[in-house]
Amino acid sequence: MNRDLSKAGIGTQAVWAGEEGPLLQHSTQVPIVQSVSFGYDDLDDWQAVALGQKPGHIYSRNTNPTVAALEEKVRVLEGAEAATSMASGMAAISNTIFSLVRPGDRIVSVKDSYGGTNQLFREFLPQINVVSFLCDTTDFAAIEAEIAKGCKLLYLETPTNPTLKVIDIERLAHKGHQVGATVVTDNTFATPINQHPLQLGSDLVIHSATKYLGGHADALGGIVCGRKDLVHAIFHYREITGAALDPFAAYLLLRGLKTLALRIERQNASTLEIAHFLEAHAAVARVFYPGLASHAQHEIAKKQMPGGFGGMLSFVLHGGYNQVKRFLPKLNYAHRAANLGAVETIVGPPATTSHVEVSAADRAAMGIPEALVRYSAGIEDVGDLLADLTQALGSA
Predict the structure, then answer these.
(1) How far is CA 154 from the centre of its chain?
(2) Which listed CATH number (3.40.630.30, 3.20.20.70, 3.90.1150.10, 2.40.30.60) goes with 260-395?
(3) Residue 186 is a catalytic residue
(4) Domain ranges (residues) in the chain
(5) Is 61 labeled as catalytic in the residue annotation?
(6) Which strands make up the sheet holding 372-376, listed edge to edge?
(7) Which of 211, 238, 363, 374 is catalytic?
(8) Within 10 A of 216 (CB to CB), how many other CB atoms are there?
(9) Where are the alpha helices (DSSP H) in 17-108?
């Protein structure tokens, strides 16, 4: 069979990429290869595989057939040269950063990245004498000025978590490359359905596969893809430090990815409708969603997110954090949990989700209000979600 997936639509790629086979015992689904090691009778063959001279697997901390199928699927979806996986999204972020910087290096990033990422910049990287300059997220001129001083790594996240700010990847990647920086973009919120950072100039793309790629809130995983030389360096760091993705989790993520295009299409449409509803509601002080014309970076989002504006939004309630505490328990069609990107709607404030590790003062400095609600729209009927929001806002 000779499928040219480079010419296929992204929905077809999500189904077929990485699954060309031949698969075990003529199976039509990628099997879970729950084996730690892989045996060879011929020592020359064994050594050739171990040295990467022949295809194959030696030990599942390094590579595994099920995991390799997942990596290939995401590689195709992102249009990357190579991909590697980790045990979680934060493992993907931390392994990428620590494999690419050295003591004395300088990183430029933004203030309101995901809380775990922010903690790496503020707490752990200084321990190895790596300085991170965190700029106002949407002051692109200020970010460019900081880049121009020189940096080893430019780390972007767009849309940001949880205030859905949009960063101009193409503009900043161009500036980063002028000073020889490696440009990394966290594409978790957008997914490959809505945004392709590599086409916009990013060298690497990171996903918390736990979120939209898996889509069912039942498996942890992280993926990094992009330039082959960079991915190889990250893979080598990961295989030695040991944050390997489990084959069963890889299988669950593979299964979830097959419906990625369908899920994101539904979530894009529902979230845009919900955003318009919330923007007009008297109980809501502000809505953050790049699909709204009122969003400060709406024009940038239209340019670099041609697939849609995503299934995440956030909004601020009148009445402060106490109003959030009254509102959330009233919702019938939402998990109150620290996750996002699943088929079920998930809600929560940053104080218990994205920025639980960060103090209230630091959240305020990042522009994250305590009365903010992060809302991950699921694939439920949007009419039911709107009715649920209506009664919860009214009764709260």
Answers:
(1) 16
(2) 3.90.1150.10
(3) yes
(4) 5-257, 260-395
(5) yes
(6) 284-288, 312-317, 372-376, 346-348, 335-336
(7) 211
(8) 16
(9) 43-50, 65-78, 89-100
Distance between CA atoms of 129 and 63, rounded to whole angstroms? 32
| Catalytic residue (choose from 106, 114, 203, 374) | 114
Q: Is the dihedral of CA 304, 309, 310, 312 positive or negative?
A: positive
Q: Which of 112, 168, 186, 203 does the annotation list as catalytic? A: 186
Helix (H) or strand (E) holding 54: none
List, for the chain, all residue ranges whose pLDDT scores fall below the cut of 70.
Answer: 1-2, 22, 353-357, 359
The single residue of 59, 61, 303, 333 carrying the catalytic annotation is 61
Q: In what order do the strands lie in the sheet with 204-208?
A: 82-86, 222-226, 204-208, 182-186, 153-157, 106-110, 131-135
pTM of the full structure: 0.95
**Domain spanning 5-257: CATH 3.40.640.10:** yes
Can 211 be counted among the known catalytic residues? yes
Q: Is 289 marked active-site? A: no
Distance CA 336, CA 346 (A): 6
Report the alpha-carbon distance of residue 275 to residue 291 in Å, rounded. 8
Amino acid at 290: P
DSSP reduced 3-state for 373: strand
pLDDT on residue 369: 80
Tokens describing residue 96: 């990428």
User: Given the structure tokens 């630091």, which residue do they identify?
Assistant: 362
Instruction: Summarize pLDDT for 109-135 with one digit per residue, the tens.
Output: 999 899 899 999 999 999 999 999 999
CA distance 255 to 271: 24
Amino acid 252: pLDDT: 98
